[in-house]
Amino acid sequence: MTLVVIGPVTNDLVVIGDEKSSNVGGATYFQSFVFEEFYTDYLAVVNCDDEKLAFEFPNPDKVRIVLKQDTHFFENNYPDKNNRDVRHQLSNFCRIPIYPEDLEEILPENIDGFVLNPLNRYDFPAETVEYLKTFNVPMFLSIQGFLRVCGVKVNENYTIKLDNFDKLSTILEGASSIFLDEAEASIIGSDLDVDEMVITNGSKGSRIVGDGEIKIDAVECVNVVDTTGCGDTYMAAYISSKLRSKSSENAGRFASSIASQKIERHGPYCKNE
Q1: What is the pLDDT of residues 225-239, one digit of tens each?
Q2: Alpha-carbon distance 91 to 149, whole Å?
Q3: First to last CA, the chain
Q4: What DSSP designation does 219 have?
Q5: What CA–CA distance (Å, rounded) separates 175 from 102?
Q6: In angstroms, rounded to a whole number, what is the distance separating the alpha carbons of residues 80 and 82?
Q7: C-alpha dihedral over 13, 18, 19, 23, to 10 degrees?
Q8: Helix, strand or coil, per DSSP, at residue 114
Q9: How far apart are CA 261 and CA 227, in angstroms?
């Protein structure tokens, strides 16, 4: 059985104070490093225009590229390096949707579940989500990309605004877990047909809302180095634990610990020896 993780790989510019670095990014990219360690039977499916990006993943043999005409670009700007909860983003908002026909020859025969990581509203058309639901396996969705719309144009890119839309509740219907932050939760509300909402709040921790509410404290970081991809790391660690233990509280505590370890180094998660 295989966990299928789907969503764009990106070219990123990370700005921390006066320091700049160009990196590979995207939720599926960051999550693959966690799954490689804690849920090794996974397949990463990414949409972009550069097949060489597969070699940036921890195990290129577990990556399938859906070739498109463009690749997502993001600038992640942390103006105050001492407060990583504040981030400004720019994106090229490329339109490279993944359609059912892109996946038909890629998906494995036996599937544990799907992890969907849209980076903007165009990545997963409603027809693609409905197609994946026909497999009748757990589905874990990151909400952020579904809410993103273009803001003000800055050179060749755009600022990011968050906005709800009519089809979102239908897209989310029946999901095992949806992942979002407090700002996104305030936009979509709580009246959704999902098993649980996993809501992160940076250094303030997270909470899991299902039949009740479970609060998870953030694990304190001694040395905050790089928070880009922290939410994606949390999500992958949570899913890895939840699929095995079935406990949301255990999964939340595990995810908080792994996200804390990721923050203490540059780039994606790497096991702390």
Answers
A1: 888 889 999 999 999
A2: 10
A3: 29
A4: P
A5: 22
A6: 5
A7: -10
A8: strand
A9: 10
Number of residues in the chain:
273
- Mean pLDDT of all residues in 35-41: 97
Token pair recorded at residue 104: 């038909």
Report the candidate in 29, 178, 44 with the shortest Cα–Cα distance to residue 106.
Answer: 44
Token code pair at residue 137 = 């396996």
Interacting residues of 150 by C-beta distance below 8 A, sequence separation 6+: 93, 158, 159, 160, 161
Residues 192 and 187: their CA atoms lie apart, in Å, by 12
* Amino acid present at 163: D
Residue type, 161: K
Which two tokens mark 141? Answer: 């969705």
Count of CB atoms situated within 10 Å of the CB of 179: 29
pLDDT for 169-179, tens place per residue?
A: 999 999 999 99
By C-alpha distance, which of 9, 24, 34, 5 is closest to 230?
A: 34
Domains delineated in the chain:
2-263 (3.40.1190.20)
pLDDT at 220: 84
Contact 177, 210 (CB under 8 A): no
